[in-house]
Specification:
Bound molecules: 6-O-phosphono-beta-D-glucopyranose
Number of strands: 18
Shape: globular
Structural class: alpha/beta
Distance between the termini: 30 Å
Helix content: 25-40%
């Protein structure tokens, strides 16, 4: 693994939750694994007045409290925080950027760091434009000879096509597109990257990976948590913008794209854009028939009573914002013409599960029909979380008299790979951004294509005048959503699949 060049990472909004929960733990993971640049400093910029010493002390205490993994592996936390400087900074003050520039120069020369800077936008999206202007005006964006300037942007990338275009223009007014890293943390997940490896490194799946053999594809990302402390953000987002426009479309693109001509950033991202451009646009009648929203009401999750969405802090009492989406759509291209794709996502659902299910067509003569789950016995399940792994389901004879068949499963679990802990998604993506590899980051045209698909749905919901359907917290979603899932999973079989046997995989032998 190539270690990034020496550089400074500047985090804006560093006193927020993202820095505390994701960025610092991910950087610590990279530090422990020896993957940070040899000369490296992190400048954490935020409004609160405090010294670097104070910032380090509070963050260490929080990290120990928050993560068992960090607590178990805490011996080098002090050393790691030696790389962290805190800089009190007001995003709205023009002078602040000049002072920040001087601070960066000071830190850089003290630690003999090359002229490479990565800016991380950890601040709320509303202030992104001000930060970009500030960086440009104080001269920090100018790329020096032999140096680099990169910017990492957190979602949401706009709230619709118009605002996404404006944000892209703003970012490109200061940085080259290749230096803009739009983070979708799903792309940092090992199991998501594995979709591409599974598809393009095996001769057995790809020949079947098309409309001739695949009946449908279902992508699920359900969560048991509610909106937690993010009620006011969520009120402006909803599940469609929060999960579908980015994470689910990204998963769909990895599952459905053509094989790139090379495994590099431009080729992979070209294929992603091609497939997004092939999404069949939805008119009002398609949306009415095939896109269902819902909002959780009070209920019970994991044996604990929880409140409804409207009673969450920061949420309007009469909010019509969706916390659940179930939808069916099509990709109009040569490979996928006619194959329905399904998305399911929601908060406060019965279980946490992210997975992709490829349902293969059934055998032409169904002698043993009815015993398997759904329309066919054959499905490939790519489990993203939890219990990361891959399962192939197929029908086999139940031992004994007659010819009764049942669905069985060949399973691979990542946990069976001894000594391998899956790297944190943020750690992987931060490392890639520091190395300048944008393969796993969203390109501006992909973001815009995503919004073109999503905007008509948002518009329809805004204007349809009907009240949002509710589902009880801890359930599987709304009635319409559950009925939609019967189309591909089979009404008789609620997931996880009931009548299944697990076939133990034989141990690999030397003769194989
Ligand atoms: C984030 C969303 O992008 O993804 C959250 O804003 C959501 O609302 C989270 O909870 C889900 O991520 P994961 O990795 O837990 O599936």
């Amino acid at each position: 693994m190539k270690i990034p060049d020496s550089q400074i990472l500047v985090i804006f909004g560093a006193s927020g939750d993202l820095t505390k929960r994701k960025l610092l733990p991910a950087l610590y993971e990279l530090f422990i694994r020896g993957l940070l640049p040899r000369a490296f400093k992190i400048v954490c910029a935020a409004r609160t007045a405090m010294s670097s010493e104070e910032f380090r002390r509070t963050r260490i205490a929080e990290m120990l409290e928050m993560s068992d993994a960090t607590a178990r592996n805490s011996s080098r936390l002090g050393e790691f925080f030696g790389l962290v400087e805190y800089f009190p900074f007001d995003i709205g003050s023009a002078d602040g950027y000049f002072l920040l520039r001087d601070e960066i120069h000071r830190v850089r020369s003290e630690a003999s760091i090359g002229d490479n800077i990565v800016f991380y936008m950890g601040a709320p999206p509303a202030v992104f434009p001000a930060i970009v202007d500030g960086i440009r005006e104080c001269g920090l964006a100018a790329v020096p000879d032999g140096g680099s300037r990169r910017i990492v942007v957190e979602k949401p990338f706009g709230t619709d096509l118009k605002s996404a275009r404006a944000l892209n223009e703003k970012l490109r007014s200061c940085f080259h597109e290749d230096s803009i890293f739009r983070i979708d943390h799903y792309l940092g997940k090992e199991t998501v990257q594995n979709i591409v490896v599974l598809r393009f490194s095996n001769g057995i799946f790809e020949p079947l990976w098309n409309r001739n053999y695949i009946d449908s594809v279902a992508i699920t990302a359900s969560e048991t948590v509610g909106v937690e402390r993010r009620g006011s953000y969520y009120e402006g987002a909803g599940a469609l913008r929060d999960m579908v426009q980015n994470h689910l479309l990204t998963l769909m693109a990895f599952v459905s794209m053509e094989c790139p001509s090379a495994f590099d950033s431009a080729s992979v991202r070209n294929e992603i854009v091609k497939v997004l451009k092939s999404l069949r646009p939805m008119g009002e009648s398609d949306i009415r028939r095939n896109v269902f929203r819902g909002q959780y009401s009070g209920g019970n999750v994991g044996g604990k009573a929880v409140c409804g969405y409207r009673d969450e802090p920061g949420v309007e009492k009469n909010s019509e914002v969706e916390t659940y989406v179930a939808m069916k759509f099509f990709i109009d291209n040569w490979r996928w013409g006619g194959v329905p794709f399904y998305f399911y996502t929601g908060k406060r659902m019965s279980k946490k599960l992210s997975e992709i299910v490829i349902n293969f067509k059934s055998a032409p003569q169904m002698f043993f029909a009815g015993q398997c789950c759904g329309r066919s016995c054959n499905r490939l399940v790519l489990r993203i979380q939890p219990d990361e792994g891959v399962s192939l389901k197929f029908g086999l004879k139940v031992p004994g008299a007659g010819f009764q068949s049942t669905q069985v499963s060949m399973d691979f679990d990542y946990s069976s790979l001894a000594d391998i802990t899956l790297p944190d998604a943020y750690a992987r993506l931060l490392l890639d951004a520091m190395r300048g590899d944008s393969t796993l980051f969203a390109r501006s045209d992909a973001v815009e294509e995503g919004w073109k698909f999503i905007d008509p749905i948002e518009d329809y919901w805004k204007n349809c005048g009907s009240e949002i359907p509710k589902y009880p917290a801890g359930s599987d979603g709304t009635k319409e959503g559950v009925e939609l899932s019967f189309e591909h999973s089979g009404a008789s079989c609620s997931l996880p699949i009931k009548n299944e046997l697990t076939v133990a995989l034989p141990k690999a032998s030397n003769e194989d």
